[in-house]
Amino acid sequence: MLGLLKERRNKRQTKKTFQSSQDTLPYLNAYADGVFQVKKERFSKVYSFHDINYQIAPIEQKQHYFEQYCHVLSSMDDRAAYQISIVNRDIDLDDLKEKIFLEERDDRFNHYRKEYNHMLAEKISEGNNDIESLKYVTITVEAKDYERAKMILARNESNLVQGFQNLGTALVPLTLTERLALYEEIYRNEITRGFDLTETTKQGLNTKDQIAPMSFEFKRNQGRVGDQYFQSTLLTNFPSRIKDDILTELTERDMKMILTINLQSIAPDKAIRLINRQITGMESDSMDLEQDSLQKGYLRTFVPHNLESGLKNAKAMLEQLQDDNEKLFTTNILITYFADSQDELEAHYEELSTIARRHICTLNILNFQQEDGLASTVPFGNNLLKIERTLTTQSTAIFMPFTSLEFNDANGLYYGMNPLTSNLILLNRKNLHNASGFILGIPGSGKSFASKREITNVLLNTEDDIIVIDPENEYGQLVKNLGGELINVSTNNQHTINPMDITIIDDVDPARKKDEVDPFAFKTEFILSVCDVILGGNMAPKVKSIIDRCIRLTYKAFVQSDFDRKHLPTLEDFYNQVKAQAEPEAKDLATALEMYVLGYLDTFTGHTNIDVDSRFVCFNIKDLGNQLKTLGLLIVLDAVWNRIRKNRDSGKHTWIYFDEAHLLFKNDYAQDFLFQLYKQARKYGGIPTGMTQNIIDMLVSDKAVTMLANSQYIMLLNQAETDTREIKALYSLSDNQLNYVRNAKAGSGLIKYGGSILPFDDQFPRDTDLYQLMTTKLDEVRRN
């Protein structure tokens, strides 16, 4: 229902003796599309926008953001008024815990879930996680009626939307329900779940009844909204130069508050006339002083500093307006904060006032204007204060509303704390277009711990499967304690992986059919690679044809049995087919295969006898000898690929971890596999992650460089100085950002997530069983 929502009172309230709290709210009417009428011929609309990583951006990027923000301000219509508001709201910690805590399950790992939840609860209490900063733009226009207001608002909206997109954020208009929820939380300190506008109207109520507190009380220098104390203040006395992080410092406080910048641009011709009048007035005052000095016989004229600097600033401002295409704005910056007690309110003022003084500003309490101060701060677009200052575009833009992008993904996993805001970092890599990733850092920086923390979180919190390729035997204890399958791949154990294993998908989803790889074609490529390794490389085309023929013969019974796995062939079956061929080249190939089928390297002969269907599988390849290193890697990687394809058919994600990934890139076959896996992982539900300490070793490979550049999840821990130059170039990092990975303590650094980069710090409590599962430090590991 578009159109005016009539603000009706209950029939019993036809006669008013005193002004009600509803009447105190600074608007007249609300409309179903979220537009509010704030005065007789003034209408407003509110838009939310998300933060960007401004504070840690490179200098060049910061300059770009500043220039783009100047463009946004310059696009503002001088016939409209604007508010930019930062609203710090309380978060229900019980709701937050319900969102991020691991649910208990019917397995034997609830002890670990309780430990994990206890850790999360401690992290929540350490930071500012009970406060969330929301950011809004409010546009207010003058119009005769609602219909005209809609058209003018739409025109103003289109001017701003592109500008915010260029900044890397987006303006999203608030619906009526969302706008009411914002006000309800400010005034009532609560949100009514499932507010039904139609039902409210049927009950004879209106939007003001939905958001009004039980009472308002306004005193000389403070007030009360319901049971909340509040105080409205004005930021004044700006110095000629001010740092661009002042709003960040003011709003990153553990308090419920609203900071609002009220803006009204002045038409260029009016702005120039205004400045000229000011200059004329100050020059006249200066001449009067000079004349007075001459009459009194003084040798020189004393001009007060304020007059002298004011005249200088006015002339500079006029030059900016005329020559630099600057605009002039009337502005005020208001801060209203809330508290549960008088003492807390006074403490809030002292905290904010100290920050203002540090920036050579003054935070003035609005004496006898608390009602207007509150109304002008809340994002209604109704500035009732007449206290304003004129600023140019650039002077206005220095009050940057951007700080640091927070990551609080739905169904996100814990990755540490944001040191800039002390908030939890919750990421869901499945939301990324390309979830593939790397964890990079020198020994002791926390690579293995970071991967184990993510693995543990995935195992305890999802139904996804996990596969680890472990070249250093670092994951055995974690696998053992979390019920996984540890597969020791070597010549002296009983574990067998059949290289002829193949995954056949019976009913491929038609939507995925074009992406499906022919399993026999893929297996043929794999067996060709195996034979190439065994023969030492450079296979002749004739040998490849023999292998192709033998593969078809080897799988013939399996195909004819309608893929009955009882007829699945082994490497020995393939060897027998090769040996039966008449060509001399086949005899040479059979001889080369013999050692791997009948000799002491027969590790991969026979059917698979391990639980490759376990949710958590770890291939320990540390004890693979030199003779089997390449072949073993190929066969393990093929088993991984079979599992990924099988899981996709079951609708399951597969997380794959490659520790010491730089070792795999020294092998051409393993490198090719990883390149294809990273390239196709998304459409197969795979989430691969490589860990390495030597990024320089990987950068010699073009394929590795492509993988590092295209992966949208990169965790950068402490880096060697020689690596920082490469990382800086690869990910366009600033010197400020690089400081987070130089001499960084273990478990801290940077995360590249999609197109954003943020610092993180993950200090996991050491007095937990989970820490013992994940640590690789010899002096901390408890051997069971």
UniProtKB/TrEMBL annotation:
> InterPro entries of this UniProt entry?
HerA_central, P-loop_NTPase, P-loop_TraG, T4SS_component
Where do the TraG P-loop domain residues begin and end? 605-741
Q: Which Pfam families match?
A: DUF87, P-loop_TraG
Domain Helicase HerA central residue range list: 437-583
Signal peptide annotation: none
What PANTHER family has UniProt attached to this entry?
A: SLR6007 PROTEIN, UNCHARACTERIZED PROTEIN YJGR-RELATED
Q: What is this protein called?
A: Type IV secretory pathway, VirB4 component
